[in-house]
Amino acid sequence: MATSGRSPRLRAAVLAARLLCAALFAFPLLFMVVSSLKPDTDIFKDIGSARAFLPIGDISLDNYAGVFDTVPAARFLLNSLGISLVTVALGILVNSMAAFALSRLSWPGGRLVLSLVIATLVVPFETFALPLVWWVSKLPWLTVHGLNLTWSTGWLDTYRVQVLPFVANAFSIYLFYSYFQSIPRQLDEAARVDGAGWFRIYRTVVMPLSGPALATVSILTFLPAWNSYLWPLMVVQTEELRPVMVGASYFFQLKVHWGEIMAYSTLITLPVLGLFLAFQRAFVNSIAATGVKG
Amino acid sequence: MAVSTSPVRTVAPAKPTSGRARRRQHGQGRTGLLMVAPAGVLLVLFFVVPVALGFALSFTNARLISPKPLEFVGLDNFARLLDDPVFWTSLRNTLLFAAVIVPAQSGFALLLALLMNVKMRGTNLFRTLYFIPVVTSIVVVSILWRFMYQPDGLVNSVLHWMTGNVVRIDWLNDTSTALPAIMFMSVWQAVGFHMVIWLAGLQTIPAELYEAAEIDGAGRWHQFRYITWPGLRSTRTFILVTITIAALSLFTQIHVMTGGGPLDATSTVVFQAVRVGYQQQQTAYASAISLVFFLLVLAISLIQRRLTRERNA
Fold first, then answer.
1. Quick check: A191 contacting B, CB < 8 Å?
2. Does the beta-carbon distance from B115 to A18 stay under 8 Å?
3. Radius of gyration of chain B (CA)
4. Longest Cα pair distance anywhere in chain B, in angstroms?
5. What's the number of domains chain B is made of?
6. In A, residues 205-234, which contact B (CB 8 Å cutoff)?
7. Are residues A283 and B286, on separate chains, in Cβ contact within 8 Å?
8. N or C: which end of chain B has fewer CB within 10 A?
9. Which of B33, B154, B200 lies closest to A31 in CB terms?
């Protein structure tokens, strides 16, 4: 419940505190964007004054051009976009189906699976990332060349190793499950009386009613996929397969040209920032959703 | 987790027969397994197996690429851990990081949530601003702050402006300031996330309680102490556990900003596991470090849950 600001003194204090915090959060990012438009000499000259946050002086997009000349930045962006979107799409399909089965169907082991899924929520990825690298380096893969099937060993240095480990997600299953529980069962009963099978009920009754859960799961899958760093750092060597964040630290090691580094940073931040500003409410609700059932 | 290999069976239109209920039950079992199968297989492959491997490999000589066959070596890797000074430094840094981050970040986030909970114009705008660092990748944030922490960087120039003295601290290259600098930046990046969660918790507290307290003449502090704080019980547990686990997993900031230096002053458990397991390809030893990390996370979240529960019982 919001406490309505009563005394004007309290309101003034709150406003002052809000403005101070706003400066704390906004200025570093403003500095990043502004610096991406300046040559290095100007960046350092302006650091001592408020000019550091103002796009004035020798403003140009040269740093951005420099980024594309130095690394295949467009390729990195497309890689991350592809990896993130495929992870989101497969994740929605796989996790919602599992959640549907857990929520609507009674089958042997259903209860046990649900409690296992919830138990996995507290295990951070970092605890098993290193054994996982070893494990994916041993996994087989079937390649189809026309009519020839060939088995190969090792998933290192592929797109699939960047996608498949993150498709099934206990938290997504849990979010879908709790949402499905809130959809009245009378709806599926009615569809069953009309002769619909379970797959059909899932596809035409339950999923179309699950917009908010879809938005939450999409956002909570997309963000870590776009931002992933530790995992691709270890499993991808080839430049063409590299996602944006690994590209960022690689770019950073090539040469210390701060204007270009800030340009690259701005470039890989803008897509997510744009999405956030466009779907703010959904973003904030997604985050709030993570805390609902601590 | 069983995998159903049966083909998709379309459920026949339900006819009012006596065996209908039984048949439906049967169809449910199959369809259920079929629908869980994709997620189940993937979770087994990419969660259950690697977690189990983490345990198993810690007792072997596994390397990422090795001509030698896998051998059981008993507790060798753990014995090596005990004698590894970098491991102990990393463990100490990780615990120190968590000990500072948990109260600082949850407290600051609560303060922001209380600020956002006052009904005023512009609340949404401020909330958006505070939240922007959360959607910014930690890699980008680390690069940006690494630039700002330079001796001739923005942080020193702001300090100069605030104090009037010329400040030339080399934040990330000084063993006494490197870890605190990373702590500050980490709070800056993530605090908006927990602000939103606190805010969601605050909004579940009924307005009538505050109105009643006001009528009884309770001051602002008493309202916070006896209404707000107890009302945030489950939110609090969640926030403390998530911040603790995230703090113990500290890696990216270190990798981008300091590479564990200067003199291992910022090396962490996960950072060292990656250094050993990936850069030096010693999977077995890295698994042993990961196992210690796993137990640490488990122990701390259990202790925290219990403490929070008891205090509020």
1. no
2. yes
3. 26
4. 89
5. 1
6. 223, 226-227, 229-230, 233-234
7. no
8. C
9. B154
User: Quick one: tokens of A60?
Assistant: 């140009």
Q: Which residues contact A64 (CB under 8 A, 6 or more apart)?
A: A36, A263, A267
Above 0.85 for ipTM, yes or no? Answer: yes
Among B15, B119, B144, B186, the residue to mutate for chain A (most A Cβ within 10 A): B144
Residue span of the structural domain in which B201 resides: 83-312
Q: Report pTM.
A: 0.88
What would the pLDDT profile of B126-171 be if each residue is shown by its tens digit? 999 999 999 999 999 999 999 999 998 999 999 998 888 888 899 9
Q: Is residue B231 part of a domain?
A: yes
Amino acid at B119: K
Q: What is the CATH number of the domain that holds B288?
A: 1.10.3720.10
Fold adopted by A75-124+166-290: MetI-like fold (1.10.3720)
Residue A174 CB partners (closer than 8 Å, separation 6+): A99, A117, A118, A121
